[in-house]
């Protein structure tokens, strides 16, 4: 048996050095005893491996292994060192091993890494500082936390960045952290008795917590999954959680039975004066039942558009933007996540790429009018992210009314369709965009039309060479726009 001595429970550097030495000498995993710090020596083990020994075998591991090992090392399972060393040896003959999720060793290592990451997240979420006065009469903060794994050093940088202006200490049974405002010190573990039990602010915090607690939205199972009960005892609001949960049903019923409050009469009178007739007029305009006299009226009416169901979920209508004297109108597909939040077209990643391409083509972006075929963001929720969904033919058709008004008021010399959806909205063409890309086209009223790809297409290309090639072609299309409409060129 060989002994591998480590300086601490999460000594990744020490484990890596010992593992390299042992694996290089071909020592099997079953013949290695891993010991930490002052653990009692194995009576049947040989002397520790010599740091001066020469490796006899070159080692190779995939890039994902070191990151995985750094996380697994922090787990509390005593067998973690042996597991990682066994994986290291197996990777020499099975370089794709980490991709085999059903392998028992890989499955166990992944589960341990997830547990460590979850514990790190819980520590950053549930550490609560309490204010104390230090020996010099200054302000300091102390927190007590009991992590499940040996993660204290790994999360230290989070607290240093978040609370750089404070002097604080985080006490745990294994390690303690102390930040003096300039330097971080890692100290031995402590006991909960060394941490304060309460400070003056906790009464205010409990009052705040009790008032923001919404019984109608309570989901006990989800709350306990995100905030496990074992952490409650360290939270100032812990004494309130059980009674708030117990009374949630009664309070929710009281909220339902309570009559709604109304704004002051003066607010209602002011709203009535300012809105009289306007909503009805705008609704008639957006239904096409009343004439729209100006671009401003069109933009105002579009804000309450209900021509299709997309308005139900989008944040707001995103109307076109740019000078009404613009010689060129660029038409995209629909607003994205950032456009939906900002209320402006072409401000997200695709819009930023569009701006760069315009500049490289020598075109003045500020002189162009930009809009979309569809004015509401269509998306699918994946967790907390809103993922773009392509609008269907019915939604495109419903929005042609607004696109037609924009063309009427801007009267551009040239319209550029960015993508197949825009081309379909402008012409009804539902075939291949590429077949129309290099052709001289025109709209029903005789306005010249050019078709090219949407900037988001370039962002989605995974191959760097293909992305560079297509970006050059897109810039060439924009340069062609400048040839057709020289007024859009940047001044020399």
Any overview of this molecule?
- The chain is α/β, with parallel strands linked by helices and 492 residues long.
- It has 4 domains: 120 residues, no CATH class; 68 residues, no CATH class; 55 residues, no CATH class; 194 residues, Uracil-DNA glycosylase-like domain (Uracil-DNA Glycosylase, subunit E).
- 43% of the residues lie in helices and 13% in strands.
- It is built from 19 helices and 14 strands.
- It has a 5-stranded mixed sheet with strand order 3-4-5-6-7, with helices on one face. Strands 9-8-12-14-13 form a 5-stranded mixed sheet, with helices on both faces. A two-stranded parallel ribbon has the order 1-2.
- Helix 2 packs antiparallel against helix 3, helix 11 packs across helix 12 and helix 15 packs across helix 16.
Total of domains:
4
What's the overall average pLDDT, rounded? 87
For the biggest sheet, the summary is:
5 strands, mixed
- Report the C-alpha radius of gyration, rounded: 32 Å
Helix content: 40-55%
Beta-strand content: 5-15%
- What's the CATH C level of the largest domain? Alpha Beta
Structural class: alpha/beta
Low-pLDDT windows of residues: none
**CATH structural architecture of the largest domain:** 3-Layer(aba) Sandwich
Major beta sheet, strand line-up? 3-4-5-6-7
CATH-level-4 superfamily name of the largest domain: Uracil-DNA glycosylase-like domain
Q: How far is the N terminus from the C terminus?
A: 79 Å
């Amino acid at each position: 048996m060989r002994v591998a001595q480590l300086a601490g429970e999460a000594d990744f550097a020490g484990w890596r050095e010992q593992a390299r030495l042992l694996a290089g000498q071909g020592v099997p995993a079953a013949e290695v005893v891993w010991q930490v710090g002052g653990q009692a020596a194995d009576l049947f083990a040989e002397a520790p491996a010599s740091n001066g020994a020469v490796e006899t075998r070159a080692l190779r591991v995939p890039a994902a292994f070191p990151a995985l090992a750094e996380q697994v090392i922090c787990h509390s399972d005593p067998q973690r060192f042996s597991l990682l060393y066994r994986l290291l040896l197996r990777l020499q003959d099975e370089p794709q091993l980490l991709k085999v999720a059903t392998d028992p060793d890989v499955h166990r290592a992944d589960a341990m890494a997830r547990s460590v990451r979850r514990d790190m997240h819980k520590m950053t979420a549930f550490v609560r500082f309490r204010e104390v006065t230090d020996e010099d009469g200054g302000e300091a903060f102390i927190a007590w936390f009991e992590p499940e794994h040996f993660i204290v050093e790994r999360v230290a940088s989070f607290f240093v960045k978040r609370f750089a202006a404070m002097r604080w200490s985080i006490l745990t049974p294994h390690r303690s952290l102390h930040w003096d405002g300039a330097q971080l010190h890692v100290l031995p573990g402590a006991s909960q008795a060394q941490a304060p039990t309460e400070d003056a602010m906790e009464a205010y915090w409990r009052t705040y917590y009790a008032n923001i607690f919404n019984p109608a939205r309570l989901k006990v199972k989800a709350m306990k999954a995100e905030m496990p009960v074992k952490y409650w005892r360290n939270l100032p609001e812990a004494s309130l959680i059980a009674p708030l949960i117990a009374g949630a049903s009664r309070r929710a019923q009281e909220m339902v039975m309570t009559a709604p409050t109304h704004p002051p009469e003066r607010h209602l009178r002011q709203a009535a004066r300012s809105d009289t007739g306007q909503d009805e007029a705008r609704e008639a305009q957006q239904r096409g039942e009343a004439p729209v006299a100006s671009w401003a009226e069109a933009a105002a009416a579009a804000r309450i558009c209900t021509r299709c169901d997309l308005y139900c979920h989008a944040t707001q209508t995103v109307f076109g933007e740019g000078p009404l004297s613009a010689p060129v109108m660029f038409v995209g597909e629909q607003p994205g996540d950032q456009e939906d939040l900002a209320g402006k077209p072409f401000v997200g990643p695709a819009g930023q790429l569009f701006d760069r391409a315009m500049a490289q083509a020598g075109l003045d972006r500020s002189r162009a009018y930009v809009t979309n075929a569809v004015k509401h963001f269509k998306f699918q929720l994946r967790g907390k992210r809103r993922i773009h969904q392509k609008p269907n033919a019915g939604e495109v058709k419903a929005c042609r009314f607004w696109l037609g008004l924009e063309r009427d008021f801007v009267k551009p010399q040239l319209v550029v369709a960015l993508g197949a959806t825009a081309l379909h909205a402008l012409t009804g063409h539902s075939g291949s965009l590429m077949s129309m890309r290099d052709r001289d086209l025109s709209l029903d009223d005789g306005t010249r039309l050019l078709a090219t790809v949407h900037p988001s297409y370039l962002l989605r290309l995974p191959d760097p060479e293909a992305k560079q090639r297509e970006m050059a072609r897109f810039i060439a299309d924009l340069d062609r726009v400048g040839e057709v409409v020289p007024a859009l060129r940047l001044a020399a």
